[in-house]
Write a structure and sequence with these properties.
Layout lengths: L24 E5 L4 H11 L3 E6 L20 E4 L7 H10 L3 E4 L5 H5 L3 H7 L4 E6 L14 H7 L19 H26 L3 E6 H8 L1 H8 L19 E5 L5 E5 L3 H11 L14 H12 L4 H8 L6 E3 L10 H6 L2 E4 L2 E4 L23 H7 L11
Parallel strand pairs: 1-2, 1-4, 2-3, 4-5, 5-6
Antiparallel strand pairs: 7-8, 8-9, 10-11
Length: 387
């Protein structure tokens, strides 16, 4: 497997890394899910991310050695409920560009590290808040997870086969797409504003808002009459026979996305059904077309069909598992995955011509970098009193 990497570096060894965000200082108040992933993305792009972990840990009890969302960061231990805990965090905030937190609304304020306290110490600070429901609204104080957030936005209801329960897309659509990525976009936009005006602000990144925003094109299609508000009946939700997945003879699957006419023509030709395929624009015959396509795919293995379609404009690809993906020739050639510290993992994305990013450290172990952070950020109060 041609993955790039460096297995010999210490976890969290660098004070930031290479990349377009080198020199940016980020304080992350430890949490779970989309907050840590957003901070990981900033670290991937070169920011010096200091994660403030709580003594005794918390969250979902994932072994910190394998929590890749903490790669490339440094960690200090601070008990925010102790008498001097908030002051230690505010000392870091004074020297930071960005803070990321994922508490329920009002918790950071009660702990003494809310926006008012932070901006009093650092008016230029970008204060990034990551929640599911947002900072206000009837459900703002209610617990939830990805599946509930994407459920109320209509996104979950679009995914799956008609007549079956909606399919759960792991936590990719809500936590990471609608949450983490929107938080990063908001933080970078607010950072530009702060550097232009000298004034920081609060970024309220709610998963419900981001996920709803992701459905913009679908809402436009629905308004135009080109999308039915039900599963498995549309061009991009599996309802279309030339945009979906098909089982092969060995139990594998092939993904088909031959939407444009020229790609569809190549698809049916290579599949060998040109003389049997009903007119693709005749929606009334989509069921018949699907049966013809499905029957043909069942005649060969996934590997055999991959060989048929690889490198063509048919827009067909094998459906790979997580363990198989790094071995795909195209991904291997691009170095889409990397091996760092003995763990195969996605490499930083996107890519930059002048300031390339790289994984610079493994998952930060809680409290492992107190001394280096205290020195680099000039916050001696982080050190134990007997040090």
């Amino acid at each position: 497997m041609a993955v790039t990497g460096n297995g010999g570096r210490d976890a969290g060894a660098d004070a930031g890394g290479r990349g377009p965000l080198a020199g940016l200082r980020v304080v992350e108040l430890a949490g779970i899910g989309p907050g840590p992933f957003a901070a990981m993305l900033l670290a991937d792009l070169g920011a010096d991310v200091v994660r403030v972990d709580r003594p005794g840990g918390g969250g979902l009890a994932v072994d910190p050695a394998y929590d890749l969302t903490n790669r490339g960061k440094r960690s200090v231990l601070v008990d925010l409920k102790s008498a001097d805990g908030p002051a230690r965090v505010l000392d870091l905030v004074e020297r930071a560009d960005v803070l990321v937190e994922g508490f329920r609304p009002g918790v950071a304020e009660r702990l003494g590290v809310g926006p008012a306290e932070c901006h009093a110490r650092n008016p230029k600070l970008v204060y990034g808040r990551m929640t599911g429901w947002g900072q206000e609204g009837p459900l703002a104080q209610t617990a939830g997870h990805d599946i509930a957030y994407i459920a109320v936005t209509g996104a979950l209801g679009m995914i799956g086969n008609p007549g079956e329960p909606p399919a759960v897309p792991a936590n990719l659509v809500g936590d990471y797409a609608g949450g983490s990525l929107y938080l990063v976009i908001g933080v970078l936009a607010a950072l530009q504003h702060a550097r232009t005006t000298g004034t920081g602000q609060v970024v309220d990144a709610a998963i419900v808002d981001g996920t709803a925003h992701l459905t913009a094109m679908i809402h436009g299609m629905m308004a135009a009459g080109g999308w039915q508000d039900r599963r498995g009946a549309n061009l991009l939700d599996g309802g279309c026979p030339f945009y979906g997945t098909y089982e092969t003879s060995d139990g594998g699957y092939m993904a088909v996305g031959a939407l444009e006419q020229q790609f569809y023509d190549t698809f049916v030709d290579l599949l060998g059904i040109t003389d049997r395929a009903p007119a693709r624009k005749d929606i009334a015959r989509w069921g018949e077309l699907r049966e013809v396509v499905a029957a043909r795919f069942r005649t060969r293995t996934r590997e055999e069909w991959t060989a048929v379609f690889e490198g063509t404009d048919a827009c067909v690809a094998p459906v790979l598992s997580l363990r198989e993906a790094p071995h795909h020739p195209h991904l291997a050639a691009r170095g889409t995955f990397t091996d760092f510290g003995g763990m195969v993992q996605p490499a930083p994305a996107p890519r930059f011509s002048a300031t390339p990013a790289a994984v610079t450290g493994g998952p930060a172990q809680p409290g492992a970098h107190t001394e280096s952070v205290a020195a680099d950020w000039d916050v001696p109060a982080l050190l134990p009193k007997d040090a």
